[in-house]
Design goal:
Length: 333
């Protein structure tokens, strides 16, 4: 056992997984430091408390999360840390299974249990601190989560199990959060969600992504605004005039299609056909000729044939997309 030289109440947050998790960790950090009970540092070497924000989305991410938990479980057994807390998607989905197997973890918290986590550490949750969040990825850009959860029934995805139904943040709340980030020196904000095109339906009874982007683009000092994770089904085309008319909105769109075979799209429960995807991409390019389009596709989905794969390959060749991510299917129970 090494001799401890750390100060009391020193916390280190380890963030695994996607940009949505990054935002969650930044919110957690702002709550901890705003409570004036804890100091939060990147270095884990002399921390009293380690908080691991896990990912439970695909096999590789699950394994990385478990390996990280086990690594710090050994640190706790060696007496190098006092508290080990696990939160995030893996904990939301598997804490009942994992907690008996890894008793070194003091507490397991799911994705909706931030107030309980803070309470365990002697901190009261303060909603007013959300606008004071600091970016942990850069001094110049930040992610901003416009909604939580997803109502889509994609057969390969467990996000609704881990993150719940779609819940939008209000426009006023997001504008206040963005202004706080800009005051802190942020020049670019990237809008993220499990499904950004669904934004506003639950709050306003209609899609309000265009209004949100319009309001955000008017924030003084915000130089770039970028939209990610736009579902191809029922795309809200009313955002296109806003993107075209505002010089600080990037002519860029992340729109994951997953596949181009109608048979596989149906099996995936994507609620969209290849022709509808092509129509959407054609509209995007005709209305914003300089737009850069990024997409992601999945190969190896159960039942995919060589013919299905070749249809996807041909689609990618035809569309000449600016950015492409290709992922292999990850088995879900």
């Amino acid at each position: 056992m090494k001799t401890k030289t750390h100060k009391p109440n020193k916390v280190s947050i380890i963030t695994l997984g996607c940009s949505k998790n990054t935002v969650d960790s930044e919110v957690l950090q702002s709550q901890l430091t705003g409570g004036r009970v804890h100091s939060v540092h990147e270095d884990t070497a002399d921390a009293d408390t380690i908080i691991i924000n896990t990912c439970g989305f695909i096999d590789n991410a699950k394994q990385e999360s478990i390996d990280t938990i086990l690594q710090f479980a050994e640190e706790k057994k060696a007496g190098n840390i006092e508290n080990l807390i696990v939160t995030g998607c893996l904990s939301e989905r598997y804490k009942e299974d994992l907690s008996p197997e890894i008793p070194e973890v003091d507490k397991w918290y799911g994705t909706f249990e931030l107030p309980q986590l803070l309470n365990h550490l002697g901190v009261d949750y303060k909603k007013e601190l959300l606008g004071e969040r600091k970016s942990s990825v850069s001094r110049h850009y930040a992610y901003m989560k416009i909604s939580e959860g997803c109502d889509r029934p994609c057969s390969f995805c467990a996000i609704p199990l881990m993150r719940g139904k779609h819940v939008s943040k209000s426009i006023d709340e997001l504008v206040a959060e963005a202004k706080g980030l800009v005051r802190d020196g942020i020049k670019e904000i990237m809008l993220i969600a499990q499904d950004s095109t669904y934004y506003g339906i639950d709050l306003y009874g209609e899609r309000r992504l265009h209004e949100l982007m319009d309001r955000l683009s008017d924030i003084e000092g915000l130089e770039w605004l970028r939209l990610h994770y736009a579902y191809p089904s029922k795309f809200p085309f009313e955002v296109l005039p806003i993107i075209n008319s505002k010089p600080n909105i990037c002519k860029y769109l992340d729109i994951p299609i997953q596949h181009a075979s109608d048979r596989i799209l149906t099996s995936m429960n994507r609620a969209v056909t290849r022709s509808e995807i092509e129509e959407t991409l054609n509209k995007l390019r005709s209305r914003i000729p300089e737009i850069a389009i990024r997409t992601s596709v999945m190969v190896g989905f159960p039942g995919e044939t060589e013919e299905d794969f070749l249809q996807l390959k041909d689609f990618v060749a035809e569309q000449k997309l600016e950015h492409l991510g290709c992922f292999s299917y990850s088995q879900e129970e």
